[in-house]
Amino acid sequence: MNMGAETNKKIKVVLADDHPLLRAGFASILQDTPDIQVVGETDNARDAVEKYKSLRPDVICLDLLFVEKTTGLDATKEIIEYDQDAKIVILSQHDQDNLIKEAYKYGAKAFVTKRSRPGILIEAIKKASSGELYFPPDIAERLAFLTTQEGPSPIDSFTKREYEAFKLIASGRSTREIAEEWGVSVKTVNNILLAVKEKAGYTRVADLTRLALQYGVIDKEPGG
Predict the structure, then answer these.
(1) Residue 148 pLDDT
(2) What is the CATH number of the domain that holds 162?
């Protein structure tokens, strides 16, 4: 057994960010770290999913917002559905409470803001690669408050698909629009929304929207 090869094994990382200069800066920082190797880069979330599947990195660093419609959270959900053991680090300029909570809910191992020192990102990647959670103290404190401040929520009982439908309908999307986006029938979407309404204890979309606003799932009413 070659102990030296095992000791020198590098953490393979994919970077997904649509700002070329920032992505180049992150890549340079990571490449200068002896035990980290950047094996892929992309400027969009859709391609990030494909790169994860083809390159199978130890860690993938995802921005949250891209120019295209697909977001880093969308990519996070899809990657976790493909591989429940995926190690995802969210690296974002935005750190609103609802984004932090959603990133954690969907399975991200770490959340780092772009204002952080380079060492924070490196530590997050190393922790995530070992299967550990890493949220810097200020983020961790906010996340703890968000997950305990109002006790159990009906949202916590939603499946991933129900949560996705809940968010879309609360954002003003119609059942037909959701069905077209998912590539399923309107009946399938209606059945999912029926389960959402039963778990939430509401029947009107307006009430679901208020619930989504209350728990930070959306940050403003449709059209607001």
Answers:
(1) 56
(2) 1.10.10.10
> Do 21 and 127 fall within a single domain?
yes
Question: Number of folded domains in the chain?
Answer: 2
Domain of residue 84: give its range.
Answer: 6-148
User: What is the percent of the chain with per-residue pLDDT over 70, rounded to a whole number?
Assistant: 92
Rounded Cα distance, 152 and 130, in Å: 30
Q: How far apart are CA 13 and CA 29, in angstroms?
A: 12
Q: How many Cα atoms sit within 13 Å of 207 on the Cβ side?
A: 10
For residues 56 and 13, give the distance between their C-alpha atoms in angstroms, rounded to a whole number: 9
- Return the residue matching tokens 């200020």: 138
DSSP 152-188: S-GGGG--HHHHHHHHHHHTT--HHHHHHHHTS-HHH
Rounded to 5 degrees, φ, ψ at 221 are -70, 150
If asked whether residues 140 and 169 sit together in one domain, one would say no
Buried b (16+ CB within 10 A) or exposed e, 173-184: bebeebbeeeee
Domain end position, chosen among 121, 148, 175: 148
| pLDDT of 28 higher than 90 | yes
Mean pLDDT value across residues 120-126 = 95
